[in-house]
Amino acid sequence: MKEVTSFSKFSKKQKIDFLIKTFFNGSFDIRERIESFWHKSESFQRAFDEFSENTITNFFLPYGVVPNLMINNDLYCVPMVTEESSVVAASAKSAKFWMTRGGVKTKVISTAKVGQVHFFWYGQTPRLESFFKGLVPELKKCVAPLVHSMEKRGGGIKSIELVDKTSIEKGLFQIHVKFETCDAMGANFINSVLEAFATKLKESVEASTFFTSEERKIDVIMSILSNYTPECLVRSEVSCSIEDLDHLGLSMDPEVYADRLRKAVLIANSDVYRATTHNKGIMNGIDAVVLATGNDFRAVESCAHAYAARSGQYRSLSDVKIEDGSFTFSLELPLALGTVGGLTSLHPLAKISLEILGQPSAPKLMEIAASIGLAQNFGALNSLVTSGIQKGHMKMHLFNILNHFNTSEDEREKAKAFFVDKVVSHNAVKEFLNGLRKYH
Ligand code: MEV
What we know:
By secondary structure, this protein is of the alpha+beta class.
């Protein structure tokens, strides 16, 4: 394709025209297809268009719900947005099993978020430290109007620390700030505070009479929140007697089954190839809730994986304990989520999700998302150490292939019966349908 200039200034129609001309030989079908995904309400569509840039249409994903997830003795119906077959079904199956065994017990351990100002300053660290001590009250004062409403809600700045990073490179320091952002994810609030700190720091260093002229030189590189929030931590666990696991309809002794689950986690803890897939399974559940509630799944993902690698080796985020005839399956991870502000209040379906969840606080949403992650991981490991993952996947895979071939209700029923004990592949389904259709 040739370079296109001023694309962002094109109207939506012009952008679509450009795509049709450049990539689809001017086909009108494509325009119809693109436009068929526009929302019928103009105001909703305008909102969607304005979430991002260069928007031409909307991209649909399935929105499902998992009922019967018991969390701290309350029942939830959890909205999940995911395109992957079997994810919602696996969570629902686990939720149902654990509902009658006390449900998920979950607890938010901490809720601190972090932001940093990274800068270079060349001098003796103790001199900067004593200057910084005097600067802290001024830093707080300069952001007072910004933090006022957050403080009224019980949040604000929790700590401001100067960190010496000169072992990385001469002159490198940072201001490391901890925040409480209550029910907001808080990215805008944190970044605004940090940028105000950076300006104040630079002005104060440059105007300082305490410093020599050499020491008055400072280079602020950047001010930005950190998506690593190890102190915004939640833990969920389920527990039952090993005997009770037999109610999963096992074809093996429950002791053996529990030990196979323990070994599955052991493998994920010691092998990065397995750990990545194991944690991906956890995020299958968590991301789906994060998306359904209009939260930032990239932030949640990068944080979860950084946390999984905190020991220096990337490990499982979940754990199994077998003690005195009892089986406990747990998950602990940081989750920086919000239930006010941002997309949570702008996306009409995010608003519906929060309504279904009973307008949770951010900590409550952390508990819900972690509990779905736990249910999802239990469902995946349960399949993996028993029948294997393909059995469950194949059914959904079959439905997707049948949709591709525009099958009738009768053909679907016949295909379901035929493939019940066979490997599902695109070709196998095509052949089966060809056979059926030949005689009609
Ligand atoms: C597939 O999306 C997720 C699993 O691979 C997770 C796992 O292996 O634990 C089934």
